[in-house]
Amino acid sequence: MHLVMVSSLDALSRQRACESLADAFPRAVVLVQDLLDEGAVVRRTFRPGAPAERVTTSLEHGCPSCAVRLDLVPALDRLCGAGEEHVVVGLPPGVPTATAARALSSLMGPPPTVDAAVLACASASVEDQIWDGQTLAEAGCTTVDGDERTPGEFLVGELAFNDTVLLADPDLVPVGAEERARGVGLLRELARHADVVEHGSQVRPGRHRPAEALHRAASGCLEPSRGAPSSPFTTVVQRVERPLHPERFQHALSALAAGCCWLRGLVWLAVAPEYRILVQGIGPRVWLENTGPWPVEQHRGPSGGHAVPAGPGVHATVLAATGEDLDAAEMTGLLASCQLTEAEMRSGITGLADPFGISSPS
User: Fold this and answer.
1) Helix, strand, or coil here: 2?
2) Distance CA 199, CA 118 (A)
3) Phi, psi at residue 62, to the nearest 5°?
4) Angle, nearest 10°, between helix axes 73-81 and 97-107?
5) Would you say 223 and 290 are in contact if contact means Cβ atoms under 8 Å apart?
6) Does residue 343 surpass a pLDDT of 80?
7) Distance, C-alpha 163 to centroid of its chain
8) How far apart are CA 289 and CA 280, in angstroms?
9) Which residue among 124, 254, 334, 338 is the one 20 to 30 A from 328 at the CA level?
């Protein structure tokens, strides 16, 4: 079975994207799933030449994983048993493609092939959604309680994992050409690896490569982006080789994140030099996370003993910032001012304050 999976922040963009894909692939079955209040799941199935089917199922836990495991998997199994080979799956708003793909791969045998992972979005809304400080539930994007992700966190995660962005602006509010072009430019800069397309007929089956998608979506991944920058949005990458003074970095972090739609990378903090500290900043929210020890080189010492720590340059701070008209020189100066000085390096500073509370793994 071959799938085109469609994720979204809102049902209107998803609906328009699924209609466009149905037009492009007339032999495909279209299956659309929605999560409602109190654990209800509504699944609609559209088969070529057959009446639409609508099924409502009540789940004990109305979470995305349960909806995929208990409703989507059995539905796809039945379609596969009926000889259907191509299905467009419209996921509930706010449900990540990776979550669904992982469940389908582990629960279906043989697992389906994901031909394309598509994010359906309204280009003119993307910038506002990234800067929205509400949770998905507060913004009305999901009914799942306890989901603290913001719309921007969902979008950035999907833009990293998915291989295609399908522009699906609802017809409710007319959008000017300049506003739409700005949104498209931002999408192209946030996901230079992806195809940004206007219609389902431009979606290329076979674009999705699971290993590459997982690598791109991994926290702190700074794989160089393919493609040219999309003005006025650019991505600036900075690297410094000395540990950072935690208090100076705390003061500089807000300035580094100012104006960035997306700030990400790994930092080497003097207060926890043996650990890689992840930095993520999406819209108004910035956070740090201890991801564990730095890697070691996978080779043996002269006597064949244990693996030894990686050589010079492995421990470093590398940050990438995506935003509008970013000043690379200013960022360089800010990071340089956070590094330990020669005198501090020689003195072997101990007892530094830990303003982030990350000196041990979480």
Assistant:
1) strand
2) 11
3) -85, 60
4) 60
5) no
6) yes
7) 11
8) 8
9) 124
Residue pair 142/10 in contact by the 8 Å Cβ criterion: no
Contact indicator for 265, 255 with CB cutoff of 8 Å = no
Q: Which residues contact 89 (CB under 8 A, 6 or more apart)?
A: 3, 4, 5, 6, 31, 32, 33, 72, 76, 100
Spatial contact of 216 and 208, defined as CB atoms under 8 Å apart:
no
User: What is the distance between the alpha carbons of residues 331 and 319, in angstroms, rounded to a whole number?
Assistant: 10
- Tokens representing 338? 């956070």
For the record, the structure tokens of 288 come out as 């740090």
pLDDT score, position 56: 92
Assess whether pLDDT exceeds 60 at residue 278. Answer: yes
Mean pLDDT of the chain: 87
Q: From the centroid of its chain, how far is CA 171?
A: 26
Q: What is the pTM (predicted TM-score) of this model?
A: 0.88
Q: Tokens 């970095």 correspond to what residue?
A: 249
Average pLDDT (117-134) is 94
Q: If 0-12 CB within 10 Å is exposed, 13-18 middle and 19+ buried, where does residue 248 land? A: middle
Q: What is the pLDDT of residues 143-197, one digit of tens each?
A: 677 778 999 999 999 999 999 999 998 877 777 888 899 999 999 999 989 999 9
- Helices 97-107 and 151-161: angle between axes, nearest 10 degrees: 60
| 288: number of Cβ within 10 Å | 19
pLDDT digits over 296-341, tens only? Answer: 754 333 333 333 333 345 789 999 999 998 889 999 999 999 999 9
Q: At 84, which amino acid appears?
A: E
